[in-house]
Amino acid sequence: MKKNPFTPNNLVIKRRENPRGKYSHLNTEDLLDAVKQSAHSTHRGDLDILLEIFLDRYNEKQMSLDKLNHTLEERIELQLKLAQDAQKRYEQQAKMAAMGEMMDAVAHQWKQPLNAISMMSDMLIDDFKNGLVTSEYIDELTDDTQGQIKHMISTLNEFRNFFRPRQKEENFGIKRCIQSVMVLVNDEFLQNNIQVNILSSEEVLLYGNENEFKHLILNIINNAKDAFNDNNIQERSIDIKFYKQDDSIYIDIQDTAGGIPTNIINDIFKPEVTSKAEGKGTGIGLYMSTQIAQKMGGTLSVKNLNNGACFSLKI
Known about the structure:
By secondary structure, the protein is an alpha+beta fold. Among the domains are: about 20-85; about 170-315, 2-Layer Sandwich (Heat Shock Protein 90), CATH 3.30.565.10. It has helices spanning about 20-25, 30-40, 45-130, 135-165, 175-190, 210-230, 285-295; strands at about 170-175, 195-200, 205-210, 235-245, 250-255, 300-305, 310-315. Strand 6 (about 300-305) and strand 7 form a beta hairpin. It is elongated and about 125 Å long.
């Protein structure tokens, strides 16, 4: 067999270089440089492969980003649900705490008139035995009894209205609203030697949910009452003033209960933060108060002033 004269003596078959394998290990920045160099080169055989690698890598990144976005949306939805559940839990805790405090207030409000009615009943029996009962005596006793009963009914009505759901927002008088709250707590505050002074004489109208505003006022003055007792304060007074200036309404509630500890005053409106001893406070009342203020388009702040705390509501 004749040897092919065109076949070289040392035949070497070269394996074609794999550009994808050559470039696939490059990071994104180096890959972009390679694309730029290949685009300006007279030898552009690898440009398509480079672009294909780059696009594949871009697609991988995009898929990874899409997956991350989807996961992030799920996480955000979960966190929102957890936040909503927490808010509902705080609202329920605040409502139950307020109900407990108001039941105590109603018990204090009813204790005095019930004692008075009981005493008048005993007096009637004794006076009848001694022949002192006359028509005028009966009329006077009846008037006194009816007065005590009206006081109890007034307290009960305020209590019912306080916890009756009221979604409707409307104009209401700040002074009248505060006086309604005082009807519920007046006897308890008298028993604790606390003087509440409403310093503003002129009525100011406020727009919002009246019952929620009552909750806000009650939370603040009840905290002051507890602070008076915890700090063993002798001179006990709460001054409330409100006024309208420009386009805003201001309400200041200042007590003489010793102020808020400096280590928590900046966090006092956060949930579960309290200055009270363990087991005596939930830390929910002021958190819900600031939520009510925000709902009414206002802000609630506090500062220590004149040996006490001054809560300021601006709406």
